């Protein structure tokens, strides 16, 4: 059964919690590879651009010799590299098997340090008695998304935004996750109406993202909501802080603020993962595919 996530987290800093410690046997490795290939072929947003006959030949060449974890990694990486999916991956034995670029991003120690011990998803401060600061970290598959969204909303409201001169939204450690808690938790700052959309490769909208008083709609149905606990001036100044590891849902939130009056962006070029993933269970492991 497909389980849809608005945007799956980028896990280049810590391993997936959906892992097994024992390396599967040869028959299981082959089954994982076959199921991964067929699922990607059916669901990838890039599927119409791929020569699947050629890719299938290369992936399954000498398949009888597949008897090691390293062999599976090589073949799965070939799938994602060939189709050009930077965001999708198979999570196996605590490892992310994806496109596997030869030139990985070099992350500064200051950005890696917080991930050595998991920090709370939300942190707030009042600066100079007039500026609110809210740090939004990424969230993981399996987290209580509704609770995180309400936590963000409650944290924002504790800052009493109606009396603030401005708010700083820190996304420098937000490497992704679900967009639901980010959009619902900050809905007063983003505003009501259409804030984004899914599109196909040609840019045709396939589903709008709509915010309305703390409710988040996709395909004309409510998929997330929070209890609205405070008011906020539409003209309040907002500063968005970005880093090289701001990715996926963190980038989507930043994009939603583009064009908003009295909003500035401070920081670096972000990671660049703005496709939407769907997730699947493959023989007990998690597969994410940009769809």
Walk me through what this model shows.
- This protein is α+β, with helices and mostly antiparallel strands.
- The protein is 27% helix and 25% strand.
- It contains 8 helices and 14 strands.
- The chain has helices at 26-43, 52-60, 69-83, 109-112, 145-158, 180-185, 187-190, 249-256; strands at residues 3-4, 89-92, 95-97, 122-127, 131-136, 166-170, 193-199, 205-212, 215-218, 221-225, 237-242, 263-267, 277-282, 285-290.
- The strands form 3 sheets. Strands 1-13-14-2-3 form a 5-stranded antiparallel β-sheet.
- Helix 1 (26-43) runs parallel beside helix 3 (69-83) and helix 2 runs antiparallel to helix 3 (69-83).
- Residues 1-21 have low confidence and may be disordered.
Brief characterization of the structure:
The chain is 27% helix and 25% strand. It has 291 residues and is of the alpha+beta class.
Side-by-side strand order of the widest sheet: 1-13-14-2-3
Report the β-strand fraction as a percent range: 25-35%
Shape: elongated
- Largest sheet data: 5 strands, antiparallel
Which runs of at least 5 residues are low in confidence (pLDDT < 50)? 1-21
User: Could you spell the SSE succession in H and E letters?
Assistant: EHHHEEHEEHEHHEEEEEHEEE
From the helix content, strand content and strand pairing, which structural class follows?
alpha+beta
N- and C-termini, Cα separation: 15 Å
Percent range for helical residues? 25-40%
Number of helices: 8
Determine the mean pLDDT.
Answer: 88
Q: Measured on Cα atoms, how large is the radius of gyration?
A: 20 Å
Number of strands: 14
